Amino acid sequence: MTRRARRRSARGRDARGQNGRGQNGRGRPVGAWLPDPVVLLRDGEWVVRPVAGAATAKVYRCPGCDHEINPGTAHLVVWPPDRVEDRRHWHRPCWDRRCRAARLRSDAG
Prior knowledge:
Layout: H1 3-11, E1 38-41, E2 44-51, E3 60-61, E4 68-69, E5 75-79, E6 88-90, H2 92-102
Antiparallel strand pairs: 1-2, 2-5, 3-4, 5-6
């Protein structure tokens, strides 16, 4: 048995890479839910969720540039926290441009 194989068996991981406590070795339970980030802009709060390109199968239209987001393209899904039915799919550069234009300005100076 090689040294690497002994270390793996000593960790007690199963075939999925999990230990017996249902954790992935990073101290976080496997499948742990993490909240989506919320962005505060002048026109309110927005929940922003990144979507991997492999997870997309439909064509969406970006409200920032009015161009299509083709299947297989990574993008963002954005919605107000209290209205999930109003979610929209944005290109990341389009959303970043909107954030720069609508960010809160400090009145301190």
